[in-house]
C-alpha cells in the first residue's frame, strides 16, 4: 500500500501565552496559542485549557474553546460613542477618548460635589468587583453593586448566614471522597468546569449522583437518580428529609453539639430578648456542660455541650429545631403532592442519605486540634455532599430554602469533613467577619467603607434618618434586609419612578439591562426612554461600557468600548471572588496576550484602566497623588501596587521586595511578571493538618490569619438558629427603636424566622386560582454565555434559536405538533414562541434556554438571524413587581429576605397557535452601531 | 488508497461514555478550533453572522430522549464523529484514493490534495461523519487528531485528540483497541461497549458506553426511633440523647 | 437524498446517451453519411454532456483525472473508465457509419454491450450504498439499464422493441418501488440501533446538535420531496412509459413523433430520477429523527 506521507509533527504554534478565560465566571486557565499573521502581528490560533491550572486542570468548555471567535467578532465596538439621536434609536457619533472622558467628568464631577447619591454605578458580570466597588467608594456614592442581587444572592447569603460560606466560590464537594452527591437546581453553574470534572470523577468511581430538578438535562441527565420536583418546593422536601432523619434519630449529634449552635440556649423570657441566644454576664453565649450540668463557655476546652439541656426554662436550639421538624406537617406523606414527589421517594432519599453518611463513614489518619484545644486523632468523614444553585436561589423563598439545605448538611454532619462539602479559602468566614453596609454620603468625600455587607440587625440597615432607603435599589431596607449583593434589577425601575429618589447619572458596566438581564424587558426599554414634563429623560444620563454591540448600547448616552479578555489586564482577587480550592487559596490575572489592534478596534481601552483615568480626572482619593496626577499608570499598575490593608493587596502571590511572600507583604513591582511566568495564577496551599474542619481547626485558623484572610482567628459555630433574623422578627413584633413600616410587619415576622422554614413562593400566591397553572423556567445552555455567545460564529450555529419545551401532559392536552407555536401568557403579558416536546420534565413545568433570543439589529447580526426571528426571552413575562392582590401593594417579585430576583417563580398558561414563522413580541430593529458581520475574519 | 488494509497492528479510536457525557459541546468547538488551523483546509463557515449560518464540523453532539417501559424518561447525549471503521465503506467507494485507512493505526483519513469533492464517501458513511467543506470543496472528517497524537512538538501528555483533552467530564477516552490491556479495551469490556448501527457491517473501532441503569434507588424507609405520637417529644429527646450517653 | 440537478442531469442524460449509442453501435439504426454523423453526434452529446454535468457536482473538478485511479475498488472510478473507454471504442463504429467504412459489426455489438456496462457501473455507484437501503438492491441496476435501453430504443425508433422496453421499464419501476418501500425496514437500522440506545426504550430526538443547517442535512435528509412521492410516481410512470408508449403505438410514424416520445420519456426519466433521490432515505437521518 502506498498511502500518502503526512507530517505527524507539524509545528503547533509560535508561542503559547497563559492567561485566564473570561467567557464565564468560572475563570479557567487557558493556553493561548499564537501564530504570526501575514502582517507579522501575533494572531490567536488556538485556545486550550491549561493543565496546571487549579480550576480546570486542562479541560475547557465550548465557550472557552471558541474564545477566538469572541475576539474576531464583528460586533466589537471600536471607539467611544456619543448619542446623537433619541435614546434607543442607536444613533451615535464616534468621539475621542478625551472627549468621552471629559463629557463623563462634566456629568459626574458636579454630582460628587453636591449629591453623590445621584450618581449610581452598577456592574453586571464584573470580575473586578473589589476594584469597581473601591472606586465607587472613593466617589462617595452609596449606589454601587454588581449583579449578584438578581443572580444568586439567596444562595450566597443563605450560606453565609448559616455556615459562613456557600456553594461555588465558597466551597465544593469533596469530589475525591464523596460517595453520594445530590444537586438541587443546577444546570451549568458558575463553577462550570470543576463541576463537570467532579461529576466525571464520581462517574469514574461509580459513586451515586442524584439530581433534584424539574428538568432532566445536562448534569441531571447523567444523574443516577432524578427527582423531578415541582419548582419552588425544594425547601419543603428538604425539611421533610430532615423530618425523616429526626424521626429515625439518624443525625450527627456529636457534630451538632460541637460545631453548631444547637447546644446554645434560646432566651424564652417574654420581651425584647426573646428568641435571642442567651448570653452570660460577659455577653458571651454559653452551653450547659454535660459533665457538670452547669453553664460553661461555648468554646471552653474539654466542654461537652448538652443538646438536651434546659436552663432556667430556656431550651437549646436543638430542642427548638427537633420540635419544629418532627412536626407531622413535614412528613413525606404530607409534602409529597405539593412537591410532586411520591412519599416513598422522599423516604428512600432520606434513608440513602443516612445510610451513606453513617454506615459508610470514612476516616483519615490525620490528627488535628480544635478551637477548644481538644485534640482529635482522626478526621471522620460522612461522604455525602450537596450542591445547589439558582434552582433554589431564584425563587422568592430561596433564602430559607438555601438555609434548609445547609441545615440538612449540618444534621448529617457532612460540612467540612472528608467526603462532604468543603470550604474554599478565604471561606469559611462567618457573618461577623464580614463588613456591614456603608451608605452615608458626604459630598466630595469617599464613603467610609464598602457598600455591601452582611446586616446583623435593624441598626445596620441602609436607611436615611427619615427611615427611607438610602440606596436607589432599596437594598438593606425593610423590604429586603439581607440584600447582601445589592439589587441590580430594581435600579432602573426605581430610578425611573424616582423612588426613593431621583438620580442623575446611571453608569452601567457589562450588563445587558435593555434585554435579557431585565425583567419585563419591554417596560424597561420604555423606562430608559421616557421623558419627564421638562423634556428630560427620567433617567437623565446613562454611561455604559460594553465590548460588543449589545441591545443595551442603544440606550446609553455615552459608550465606553472595552477590550476583550485577551487584550487587557484583569485580576481575580481574594478580596473579591477568587479561584480557590478547598486545599488552596488561589488568585489569578489576565494580561494582554494580544494587542487590541485588529482593524477598527484600535480605539478600545480596558475598562478598568479607563475607570482609573476617570478617577484621576475626578480627583478621587486613592488613585490621585497630592499633585493631582495619577497614582497608577493603569490597571496593571493598580493590581500590583494598590494596598488595601497594610501588606494586603489585590494579589496574594509573589509579594514583598523579593517576591517570596505569600498573603501579606509589601508590593512587588515584578509581581505581574511573576504571575505570567507562573501560568497566570498563584496558589497558597492549606497545610495538611488544616485541610478539614476549617471553622474549628486551630491550624487552619492560624494559617488563614497568616495568609491575610482575617486579622485574628475567627472560630465560630454554624448558625442553625439565626440571631440576626430573630432581631428582625423582634423588630416586626414591635421591639427596639428602629421599627419597620406597618405594612411589612407580618411579612417580616414570617420571612425572618430564625429556623429554616418553607413558604410557598410569593408568585404562587398569585397563581392560585388566577389561571396560571404552569411553571416556566429557564436554564443556562452550557455552550452559550447569556447574550454574549451570540456573536460567536461557531456557537450560534449550535444554538441559534430556542424552543419552549413542554412536558408530555401539556403537549398532548393541547394537541401540539412539531413545528407549532404557542402563546404563553403570564399576569405580565404574552409571548408567542416555538414549542417542542420533552418527556423528561416535571409535568407542570415548561422551560427554555436562557438569553438565546436577541433583538433585531443587535450583535452585528443580520436582521433575519434566527436568534431574533424565532429566538425569544421569557423575560417579557416576568415583572419586577407582582400583580396587586387586593392589599393595595405591588410587592416586589423577590425574596423578602435578600431581595433576590425571583426569576423562577414565573407562572403561565399556554394556548396553541399553530404554525408561525417568527416569535412575538418583535421590537423595531436597532440601528447598527457596528458594520454588519460578513465573513469570518 | 481505496482498498482497506487487511488488518492494522494498532487500532486507534475513542470510547465515548454516554453515562457521563453531559452534552456540553466542549469537544465540538475544541475540535473545530484545532482543525480550523491544523490538518488540511480550515473548517469554513458560511454566512457566519447572517440569517442562515452553516459550517463544517467534525464532531457534533446529539441529544436523545428515551422513554423506558417502566421508568422515568431519560435524556442521553451522543457525540458523533468518525468511528474509524474497520470495514470502512467510505474508503472503498472513493474514486480517487483520497480516502484511506492508515495501515499502521487504522485511522481513516482524507488526503485533501487528491480529493475531487465528489461526496460519495459521505453518502457511504452511515454515521454522518464526513462533511464537505463548502469553501475548499474537499471532504473533511475527524482525523483522530493524527497531527496531535504523534506530534513531537507537543508535550507527551498532550498527544491525544483535542476533543479528549477538552472534555470536562472525561467522557471521551482515546487508545488502542488492538491492545486488550489499553484503557479503551478495558473500559469497553467492563461497561459493555457498543458499536453503533452494527447491521451496516462497518465494524466501527470507536465504541460507546451505554448509560447505566437509572432511578434504581431501592433504599427502604428509615425505621423510626419510636412512635413519637405515643411517647411525645420528651420521649424522643430521651431516646435520641441516650444514644450519645 | 438531495436531488441535485447536476446529478439528475448526469445520470439521465448519460443513461439515455449510452442507451442510444448502444443501438447505433449495434447497427440497429441503419444510417449513413451526414445522417449517421448527426445521430452519433446526438448520442455522444448526451453521454458526454451527462458526464460533464456530473463534474458540476464536484468540489474540485480540476482534479477529475484522479478519479480514474481506483478502478480496483470504486464503482465511481470504474464508471469513469467504462465511460471513457466506451466512448473511445465507439469512435471507430461512428466513423465507419459516417464515412461508410463498413467495419465489422461485431466490434459495434461489443461496444454496445460496453455502453450497457457503463450504465451498469453508474447504477452500481448507487446500488452499492448500504447506507441508502432503497438503492441498495438489484432493482437499481435493473432500473438504470431499463431506462438506458428504453430511452435508447425510443430515440432509435425501435418500434415494437421500444414498446417492449417500455413494458420492461414499467416492470422495473414497479419492482423498484415495491422493494424500495420495504428496504429500510429490511436493513433493520433504526434510531435505536443508530444510537445504541434501543434496548433501553423508545428513542426520540430531544435536540439536534446544531440549530443551524449543515451539509449532512442538506445532502442526505430531504423530507420535503417525499411528501409528493405518490403523485410523482404516477407522473413519472405516465411520462416515462405510458405517454411514449401511446405515441409509439397510436401516432403515425415519423421523426417528429419519435422525438416527442423520446423527450416525454426523458422528462419522465428526470422526474423519476428526482424522485429516486428525493425518496431515498439515508440511514444518517436516523440521528436526526428524520429520514
Ligand atoms: N454556559 C453558561 N454558564 C453560565 C452562565 C451562562 O449564561 N452560560 N451564566 C452564569 C450565571 S450568571 C449564573 S447565575 C449561573 C447559574 O447557573 P445555574 O444555577 O445552573 O442556573 P440556571 O441555568 O439558571 O439553572 C437553574 C436550574 O435550576 C432548575 N430549577 C428551577 N427551579 C427549580 C426549583 O424550584 N427546584 C429545583 N430543584 N430546580 C429548579 C432549572 O431547571 C435549572 O436546571 O451560571 C453561570 N454559568
Ligand atoms: N429569564 C431569565 N433572565 C435572566 C436570568 C434567568 O435565569 N432567567 N438570569 C439572570 C442572571 S443570574 C444574570 S447574572 C443576568 C446576566 O445578565 P448580564 O450580566 O447582563 O449578562 P449578559 O447578557 O452576558 O450581559 C453582559 C454584557 O456584558 C458585555 N460584555 C461581555 N464581555 C465584556 C467585556 O469584556 N467588557 C465589557 N465592558 N462588557 C462585556 C456583553 O456584551 C453584554 O452586553 O441575567 C439575568 N436574566
Ligand atoms: S467554563 Fe468555559 S467559559 Fe467559563 S472560564 Fe472556563 S473555559 Fe472559560
Ligand atoms: S465512521 Fe464513516 S467516515 Fe468514519 S470510517 Fe466509518 S464509514 Fe468511514
Ligand atoms: S469526496 Fe473526496 S474523499 Fe470522498 S469519495 Fe470523493 S474524492 Fe474520495
Ligand atoms: S479526534 Fe480530533 S478530529 Fe476527531 S473529533 Fe476529536 S478533536 Fe475532532
Ligand atoms: S466534551 Fe465531553 S461531556 Fe461535553 S459533549 Fe463532548 S463528550 Fe460530552
Ligand atoms: Mo447570574
Descriptive account of the structure:
The complex is a heterotrimer of chains A (937), B (245) and C (291). With 937 residues, chain A is α/β, with parallel strands linked by helices. Chain A is built from 27 helices and 33 strands. Helix content of chain A is 26%, strand content 16%. In chain A, helix 4 (129-139) packs parallel to helix 18, helix 9 packs across helix 13 (343-359) and helix 22 (723-732) runs antiparallel to helix 23. The radius of gyration of chain A is 27 Å and the shape is globular. Chain B is of the alpha+beta class. Chain B contains 7 helices and 11 strands. Chain B has helices at residues 26-36, 89-92, 120-124, 146-149, 162-166, 183-191, 228-244; strands spanning 12-17, 45-46, 54-55, 60-67, 74-80, 99-101, 108-110, 130-132, 139-141, 172-176, 207-209. Chain B has a 3-stranded mixed sheet with strand order 10-1-11, covered by helices on one side. Chain B has a two-stranded antiparallel ribbon with strand order 2-3. In chain B, a hairpin with a 7-residue loop joins strand 2 (45-46) and strand 3 (54-55). The longest helix of chain B has 17 residues, at 228-244. Chain C has helices at 5-25, 33-56, 75-99, 105-127, 139-155, 159-187, 191-195, 215-220, 223-226, 229-250, 255-278, and one strand at 202-207. In chain C, helix 1 (5-25) packs antiparallel against helix 4. Chain C is globular, with a radius of gyration of 21 Å. In chain C, 54% of the residues are buried. Chains A and B meet through strand 3, helix 1, helix 7, helix 8 and helix 9 of A and helix 1, strand 3, strand 4, strand 5 and helix 5 of B. The structure holds ligand MGD (2 copies), iron/sulfur cluster (5 copies) and molybdenum atom. Residues 82-85, 88-90, 108, 125, 127, 129-130, 141, 202 of chain B line the site of one iron/sulfur cluster. The site of one iron/sulfur cluster has 13 residues of chain B, from helix 1 and helix 5.
Distance between the termini of chain C: 9 Å
Instruction: List the uncertain runs of chain A.
Output: none
Task: Determine the most extensive contact between two protein chains.
Answer: A-B, 103 and 89 residues
Beta strand count of chain C: 1
- What is the helical fraction of chain A, as a range of percent? 25-40%
Task: Look at the structure and give the mean pLDDT of chain A.
Answer: 95
Q: Determine the structural class of chain C based on helices, strands and strand pairing.
A: mainly alpha
Strand-residue fraction of chain C?
Answer: under 5%
Mean pLDDT of chain C: 94
Ions, cofactors and other bound molecules: ligand MGD, iron/sulfur cluster, molybdenum atom
Report on the biggest sheet of chain C.
Answer: none
Let me know the CATH homologous superfamily of the domain at 166-427 in chain A.
Dimethylsulfoxide Reductase, domain 2
Q: Measured on Cα atoms, how large is the radius of gyration of chain C? A: 21 Å
State Rg of chain A: 27 Å
How many helices of chain A does DSSP assign? 27
Instruction: Report, as a whole number of angstroms, the end-to-end distance of chain A.
Output: 40 Å
- SSE arrangement of chain C, N to C: HHHHHHHEHHHH
Return the CATH class of the domain at 166-427 in chain A. Answer: Alpha Beta
How does the overall form of chain C come out from the CA principal axes? globular
Beta fraction of chain A: 15-25%
- Please give the domain count of chain C: 2
Amino acid at each position: 500500500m502506498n498511502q500518502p506521507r503526512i507530517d505527524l509533527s507539524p509545528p503547533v504554534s509560535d508561542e503559547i501565552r497563559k492567561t485566564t478565560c473570561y467567557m464565564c465566571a468560572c475563570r479557567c486557565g487557558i493556553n493561548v496559542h499564537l501564530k504570526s499573521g501575514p502582517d507579522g502581528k501575533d494572531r490567536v490560533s488556538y485556545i486550550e485549557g491549561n493543565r496546571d491550572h487549579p480550576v480546570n486542570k486542562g479541560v475547557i468548555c465550548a465557550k472557552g474553546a471558541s474564545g477566538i471567535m469572541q475576539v474576531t467578532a464583528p460586533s466589537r465596538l471600536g471607539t467611544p460613542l456619543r448619542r446623537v439621536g433619541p435614546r434607543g434609536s442607536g444613533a451615535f457619533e464616534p468621539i475621542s477618548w478625551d472627549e468621552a472622558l471629559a463629557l463623563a467628568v462634566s456629568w459626574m464631577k458636579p454630582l460628587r460635589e453636591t449629591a453623590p447619591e445621584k450618581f449610581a454605578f452598577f456592574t453586571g458580570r464584573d470580575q473586578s468587583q473589589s476594584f469597581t466597588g473601591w472606586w465607587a467608594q472613593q466617589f462617595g456614592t452609596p449606589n454601587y453593586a454588581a449583579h449578584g442581587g438578581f443572580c444568586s444572592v439567596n444562595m450566597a447569603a443563605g450560606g453565609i448566614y448559616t455556615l459562613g460560606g456557600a456553594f461555588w466560590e465558597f466551597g465544593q464537594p469533596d469530589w475525591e471522597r464523596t460517595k453520594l452527591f445530590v444537586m438541587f437546581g443546577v444546570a451549568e453553574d458558575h463553577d462550570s468546569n470543576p463541576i463537570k470534572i467532579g461529576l466525571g470523577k464520581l462517574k469514574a468511581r461509580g459513586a451515586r449522583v442524584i439530581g433534584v430538578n424539574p428538568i432532566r438535562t445536562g448534569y441531571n441527565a447523567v444523574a443516577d437518580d432524578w427527582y423531578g420536583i415541582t419548582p419552588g418546593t425544594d425547601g419543603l422536601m428538604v425539611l421533610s428529609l430532615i423530618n425523616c432523619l429526626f424521626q429515625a434519630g439518624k443525625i450527627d449529634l456529636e457534630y451538632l453539639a460541637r460545631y453548631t449552635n444547637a447546644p446554645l440556649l434560646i432566651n424564652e423570657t417574654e420581651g425584647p430578648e426573646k428568641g435571642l441566644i442567651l448570653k452570660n454576664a460577659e455577653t458571651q453565649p454559653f452551653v450547659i456542660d454535660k459533665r457538670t450540668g452547669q453553664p460553661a463557655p461555648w468554646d471552653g476546652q474539654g466542654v461537652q455541650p448538652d443538646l438536651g439541656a434546659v436552663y432556667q426554662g430556656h431550651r437549646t436550639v436543638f430542642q427548638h429545631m427537633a420540635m419544629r421538624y418532627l412536626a407531622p406537617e413535614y412528613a413525606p406523606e404530607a409534602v409529597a403532592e405539593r412537591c410532586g414527589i411520591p412519599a416513598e421517594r422522599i423516604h428512600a432519599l432520606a434513608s440513602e442519605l443516612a445510610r451513606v453518611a453513617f454506615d459508610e463513614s470514612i476516616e483519615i489518619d490525620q490528627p488535628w486540634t480544635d478551637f477548644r484545644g481538644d485534640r482529635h486523632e482522626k478526621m471522620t468523614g460522612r461522604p455525602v455532599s450537596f450542591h445547589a444553585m439558582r434552582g433554589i436561589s431564584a425563587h422568592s423563598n430561596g433564602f430559607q430554602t438555601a438555609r434548609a439545605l445547609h441545615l440538612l448538611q449540618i444534621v448529617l454532619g457532612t460540612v467540612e469533613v472528608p467526603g462532604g462539602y468543603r470550604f474554599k479559602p478565604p471561606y469559611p468566614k462567618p457573618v461577623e467577619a464580614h463588613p456591614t453596609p456603608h451608605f452615608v454620603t458626604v459630598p466630595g468625600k469617599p464613603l467610609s467603607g464598602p457598600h455591601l455587607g452582611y446586616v446583623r440587625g435593624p441598626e445596620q440597615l441602609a436607611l436615611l434618618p427619615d427611615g427611607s432607603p438610602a440606596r436607589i435599589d432599596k437594598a438593606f431596607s425593610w423590604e429586603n434586609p439581607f440584600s447582601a449583593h445589592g439589587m441590580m434589577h430594581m435600579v432602573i425601575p426605581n430610578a425611573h419612578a424616582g423612588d426613593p429618589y431621583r438620580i442623575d447619572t446611571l453608569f452601567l458596566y457589562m450588563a445587558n439591562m435593555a434585554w435579557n438581564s431585565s425583567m419585563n424587558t419591554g417596560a424597561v426599554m420604555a423606562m430608559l426612554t421616557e421623558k419627564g414634563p421638562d423634556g428630560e429623560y427620567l433617567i437623565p444620563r446613562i454611561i455604559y461600557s460594553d465590548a460588543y454591540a449589545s441591545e443595551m448600547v442603544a440606550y446609553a448616552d455615552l459608550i465606553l468600548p472595552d477590550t476583550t479578555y485577551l487584550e487587557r489586564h484583569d485580576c481575580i482577587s481574594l478580596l473579591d471572588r477568587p479561584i480557590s480550592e478547598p486545599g488552596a487559596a488561589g488568585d489569578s490575572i489576565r494580561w494582554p496576550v494580544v494587542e487590541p489592534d485588529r482593524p477598527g478596534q484600535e480605539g478600545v481601552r480596558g475598562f478598568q484602566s479607563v475607570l482609573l483615568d476617570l478617577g484621576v480626572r475626578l480627583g478621587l482619593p486613592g488613585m490621585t497623588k497630592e499633585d493631582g496626577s495619577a497614582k497608577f499608570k493603569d490597571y496593571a499598575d493598580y493590581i500590583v501596587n494598590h494596598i488595601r490593608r497594610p501588606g494586603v493587596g489585590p494579589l496574594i502571590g509573589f509579594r514583598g521586595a523579593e517576591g517570596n511572600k505569600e498573603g501579606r507583604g509589601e508590593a512587588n513591582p515584578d509581581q505581574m511578571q511573576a504571575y505570567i511566568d507562573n501560568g497566570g495564577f498563584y496558589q497558597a496551599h492549606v497545610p495538611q493538618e488544616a485541610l478539614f474542619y476549617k471553622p474549628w481547626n486551630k491550624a487552619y485558623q492560624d494559617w488563614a490569619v497568616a495568609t491575610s484572610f482575617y486579622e485574628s482567628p475567627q472560630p465560630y459555630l454554624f448558625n442553625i438558629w439565626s440571631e440576626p433574623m430573630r432581631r428582625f422578627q423582634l423588630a416586626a413584633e414591635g421591639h427596639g427603636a428602629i421599627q419597620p413600616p406597618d405594612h411589612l410587619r407580618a411579612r417580616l415576622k414570617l420571612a425572618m424566622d430564625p429556623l429554616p422554614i418553607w413558604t410557598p413562593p410569593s408568585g404562587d400566591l398569585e397563581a392560585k386560582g388566577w389561571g396560571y397553572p404552569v411553571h416556566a423556567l429557564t436554564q443556562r445552555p452550557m455552550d452559550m454565555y447569556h447574550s454574549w455567545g451570540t456573536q460567536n460564529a461557531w456557537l450560534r450555529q449550535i444554538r441559534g434559536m430556542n424552543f419552549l419545551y413542554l412536558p408530555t401532559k401539556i403537549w398532548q392536552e393541547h394537541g401540539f405538533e412539531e413545528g407549532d407555536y404557542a402563546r404563553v401568557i403570564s399576569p405580565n403579558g404574552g409571548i408567542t414562541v416555538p414549542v417542542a416536546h420533552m418527556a423528561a420534565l416535571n409535568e407542570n413545568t415548561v422551560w427554555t434556554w436562557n438569553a438565546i433570543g436577541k433583538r433585531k439589529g443587535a450583535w452585528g447580526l443580520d436582521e433575519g438571524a434566527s436568534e431574533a426571528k424565532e429566538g425569544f426571552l421569557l423575560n417579557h413575562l416576568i415583572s419586577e413587581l407582582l400583580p396587586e392582590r387586593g392589599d393595595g401593594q405591588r410587592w416586589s417579585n423577590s425574596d423578602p429576605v435578600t431581595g433576590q430576583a425571583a426569576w423562577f417563580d414565573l407562572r403561565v398558561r399556554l394556548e396553541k397557535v399553530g404554525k408561525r414563522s417568527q416569535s412575538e413580541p418583535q421590537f423595531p430593529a436597532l440601528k447598527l452601531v457596528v458594520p454588519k458581520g460578513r465573513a469570518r475574519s | 488508497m481505496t482498498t482497506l488494509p487487511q488488518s492494522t497492528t494498532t487500532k486507534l479510536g475513542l470510547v465515548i461514555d454516554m453515562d457521563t457525557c453531559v452534552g456540553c459541546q466542549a469537544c465540538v468547538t475544541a475540535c473545530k478550533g484545532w482543525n480550523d488551523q491544523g490538518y488540511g483546509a480550515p473548517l469554513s463557515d458560511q454566512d457566519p453572522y447572517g440569517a442562515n449560518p452553516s459550517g463544517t464540523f467534525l464532531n457534533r453532539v446529539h441529544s436523545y430522549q428515551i422513554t423506558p417501559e417502566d421508568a422515568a424518561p431519560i435524556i442521553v447525549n451522543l457525540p458523533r464523529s468518525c468511528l474509524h471503521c474497520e470495514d470502512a465503506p467510505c474508503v472503498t467507494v472513493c474514486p480517487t484514493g483520497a480516502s484511506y485507512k492508515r495501515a499502521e493505526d487504522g485511522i481513516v483519513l482524507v488526503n485533501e490534495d487528491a480529493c475531487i469533492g465528489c461526496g460519495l464517501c459521505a453518502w457511504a458513511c452511515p454515521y454522518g461523519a464526513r462533511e464537505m467543506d463548502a469553501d475548499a470543496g474537499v471532504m473533511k472528517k475527524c482525523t483522530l487528531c493524527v497531527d496531535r497524537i504523534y506530534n513531537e512538538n507537543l508535550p507527551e501528555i498532550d498527544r491525544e485528540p483535542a476533543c479528549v483533552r477538552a472534555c470536562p467530564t472525561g467522557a471521551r477516552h482515546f487508545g488502542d483497541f488492538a491492545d486488550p490491556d489499553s484503557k479503551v479495551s478495558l473500559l469497553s469490556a467492563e461497561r459493555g461497549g457498543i458499536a453503533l448501527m452494527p447491521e451496516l457491517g462497518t465494524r466501527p473501532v470507536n465504541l460507546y458506553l451505554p448509560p447505566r441503569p437509572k432511578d434504581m434507588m431501592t433504599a427502604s424507609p428509615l425505621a423510626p426511633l419510636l412512635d413519637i405520637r405515643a411517647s411525645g417529644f420528651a420521649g424522643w429527646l430521651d431516646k435520641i440523647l441516650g444514644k450519645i450517653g | 437524498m438531495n436531488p441535485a440537478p447536476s446529478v439528475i442531469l448526469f445520470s439521465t442524460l448519460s443513461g439515455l446517451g449510452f442507451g442510444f449509442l448502444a443501438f447505433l453501435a449495434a447497427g440497429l439504426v441503419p444510417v449513413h453519411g451526414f445522417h449517421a454523423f448527426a445521430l452519433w453526434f446526438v448520442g455522444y452529446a448526451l453521454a458526454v454532456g451527462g458526464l460533464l454535468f456530473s463534474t458540476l457536482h464536484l468540489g474540485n473538478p480540476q482534479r477529475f483525472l484522479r478519479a480514474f485511479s481506483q478502478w480496483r475498488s470504486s464503482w465511481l472510478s470504474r464508471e469513469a473508465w467504462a465511460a471513457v473507454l466506451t466512448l473511445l471504442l465507439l469512435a471507430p463504429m461512428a466513423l465507419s457509419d459516417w464515412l461508410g467504412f463498413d467495419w465489422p459489426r461485431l466490434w459495434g455489438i461489443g461496444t454496445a454491450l460496453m455502453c450497457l456496462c457503463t450504465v451498469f457501473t453508474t447504477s452500481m455507484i448507487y446500488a452499492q450504498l448500504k447506507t441508502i437501503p432503497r438503492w441498495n438492491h438489484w432493482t437499481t441496476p435493473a432500473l438504470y439499464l431499463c431506462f438506458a435501453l428504453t430511452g435508447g430504443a425510443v430515440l432509435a425508433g425501435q418500434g415494437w422493441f421500444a414498446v417492449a422496453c417500455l413494458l420492461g421499464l414499467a416492470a422495473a419501476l414497479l419492482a423498484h418501488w415495491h422493494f424500495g418501500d420495504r428496504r429500510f425496514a429490511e436493513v433493520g437500522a433504526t434510531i435505536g440501533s443508530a444510537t445504541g440506545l434501543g434496548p433501553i426504550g423508545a428513542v426520540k430526538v430531544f435536540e439536534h446538535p446544531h440549530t443551524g443547517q449543515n451539509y449532512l442535512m442538506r445532502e442526505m435528509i430531504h423530507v420535503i420531496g417525499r411528501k409528493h412521492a405518490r403523485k410523482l410516481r404516477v407522473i413519472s410512470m405516465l411520462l416515462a412509459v405510458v405517454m411514449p408508449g401511446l405515441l409509439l403505438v397510436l401516432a403515425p410514424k415519423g421523426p417528429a413523433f419519435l422525438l416527442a416520445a423520446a423527450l416525454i420519456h426523458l422528462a419522465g426519466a428526470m422526474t423519476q430520477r428526482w424522485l429516486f433521490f428525493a425518496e431515498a432515505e439515508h440511514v444518517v437521518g436516523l440521528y436526526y429523527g428524520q429520514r
